[in-house]
UniProtKB/TrEMBL annotation:
EC number(s) from the headed UniProt entry: 2.7.13.3
Reactions the enzyme catalyzes: ATP + protein L-histidine = ADP + protein N-phospho-L-histidine
Name of the top EC class for this enzyme: transferase
Origin: domain of life: Bacteria
Database matches in InterPro entries: HATPase_C_sf, HATPase_dom, His_kinase_dom, Sig_transdc_His_kin-like_C
Keyword flag Transcription regulation: no
UniProt lineage: Bacteria, Pseudomonadati, Pseudomonadota, Alphaproteobacteria, Sphingomonadales
Transmembrane region(s): 31-51
Keywords assigned by UniProt, alphabetized: ATP-binding, Kinase, Membrane, Nucleotide-binding, Transferase, Transmembrane, Transmembrane helix, Two-component regulatory system
Protein name, entry field: histidine kinase
Pfam families referenced in this protein's UniProt entry, alphabetically: HATPase_c
Length: 438
């Protein structure tokens, strides 16, 4: 392009010089007035061609620079007639095409990175220098839904300590915090890091909920402990039971009044050993994780059947059954879920009947707009003291003289096996309220 332009420029300059020389010759030669006029017009025309050649080049270059300045990759320069300008236009078009390809590749990469961040399953938040908090991906938008403002104060609804970590001046750290999410306390690992973006400093906060993982670890530890304990105790108890039965049989065959006390002692030992063996065997169910047969079923007939069972067992306790909407599908193991709810309803009935003059139990099933299944069992009993709420789900823990401490632990195992949560709260009826979220 450069050599073509130079050649054309040199030719035009040579033409102007030749015409100027001819004009000078005509001016010096008498009797050539008409020739002088013609040569003058030719000099003007050659000058105009030279000026137009340079202006068109300047115009093309200016268009190219202006397109670059505005990021306009759609500009075209080829197709213009004129010596030297077709080559220049093609060069400019090739440059624009390369620029468009680079911008397209960069845009595709940027879109990929944006989609990668948005689809990352770990919630990401950013905090800018002005204190504005941005939910950077879908996981964050699903997790944090209750704030009214995207500020540090607005996020205090999730916990004061967590909100303090969203200060741009807060130290960078990694820690386990308790967040209040959807009305439930939940542990999460919170990490923060500093980034510089376009000359601005921002904090990136990663929130990784770990409550379900901790629950699973706790349940596994409990079942392993129970499995070991029951196995070892039964191994030690089996010969004791056998020897006690043998001794009881032998002593019963001897007719000697002096052995009466020994006979009673051995018989008592035999009964207690057998009873202890049955007691330990009953706890073996705690050491077995529930195996789900998950399938969809309708909530209305499921809830109605549980209500009939409860009313048949506890006709003295009023049961309020709430279903919102009137019917919907539940994706769960109907048998295991029924077992868990029967335990909760039975406990609620016993608590209410032993405390209130008009015992009452609430059985509430509902589905949220997000598709979550919420189940609540509440009563007007005495409730559970705050200091015992962390213990009632432990295996073998009970506050009733006739309780085994297995029921609520099994309930929690069944809920966790479904990937759900269970919480204990106070209810407006005055007693305890167990809330299950699937």
């Amino acid at each position: 392009m450069g050599s073509d332009f130079t050649v054309q420029l040199a030719l035009r300059l040579l033409l102007v010089q030749l015409l100027l020389a001819a004009q000078a010759w005509a001016m010096l030669t008498p009797g050539l007035a008409a020739v002088r006029i013609v040569l003058l017009l030719l000099v003007v025309g050659a000058g105009w061609l030279l000026w137009r050649h340079v202006q068109r080049t300047n115009h093309q270059v200016a268009r190219f620079v202006e397109a670059l300045r505005h990021g306009d990759g759609s500009a075209h320069f080829s197709g213009r007639s004129g010596s030297g300008f077709d080559a220049m236009g093609r060069a400019f078009d090739d440059a624009m095409r390369a620029l468009r390809d680079e911008r397209r590749a960069a845009g595709d990469q940027l879109n990929f990175l944006g989609a990668l961040v948005d689809d990352t399953p770990i919630p990401l938040l950013t905090v800018d220098a002005d204190g504005r908090i941005d939910l950077a991906n879908k996981a964050a938008r699903r997790l944090f839904t209750e704030h009214e403002a995207f500020t540090q104060e607005g996020f205090r609804i999730y916990g004061a300590t967590f909100a303090n970590r969203l200060d741009i001046a807060a130290p960078l750290r990694e820690e386990v915090l308790i967040l209040t999410l959807q009305g439930r306390a939940s542990r999460a690992i919170v990490r923060s890091a500093a980034l510089a973006r376009l000359g601005n400093n921002i904090h990136v906060v990663i929130v990784q909920p770990v409550q379900e993982t901790l629950n699973a670890i706790e349940m596994t530890a409990q079942t392993d402990l129970v499995r070991v304990l029951t196995h070892e105790i039964l191994n030690s108890l089996t010969p004791v039971t056998s020897l006690a039965a043998t001794a009881s049989t032998l002593i019963a065959q001897v007719d000697d009044p002096r052995l009466e006390d020994a006979r009673l002692a051995v018989a008592t030992l035999e009964r207690r050993a057998e009873g202890l063996a049955r007691f330990i065997n009953s706890y073996r169910q705690v050491a077995s994780e529930p195996v789900l047969d998950r399938r969809p079923f309708q909530a209305a007939p499921f809830a109605a059947e549980l209500a009939r069972l409860f009313r048949a067992e506890r006709p003295d306790v009023a049961l309020d059954l709430l279903l919102d909407p009137s019917d919907f599908a539940i994706d769960a193991d109907p048998d295991l879920l029924a077992q868990a709810l029967i335990n909760l309803l039975r406990n609620a009935g016993e608590a209410a009947s032993g405390h209130a003059a008009s015992p009452r139990v609430l059985f509430d099933l509902r589905r949220s707009s997000a598709g979550e299944i919420g189940i609540a069992v509440a009563d007007n009993g005495p409730g559970v003291p705050p200091e015992l709420r962390r213990d009632i789900f432990l295996p073998f823990f009970t506050t009733r003289a006739t309780g085994t401490g297995v029921g609520l632990n099994l309930v929690r195992q069944i809920v966790f096996a479904h990937g759900g949560t269970i919480d204990l709260k106070d209810d407006a009826l005055g007693g305890a309220r167990f809330e299950i979220l699937l």
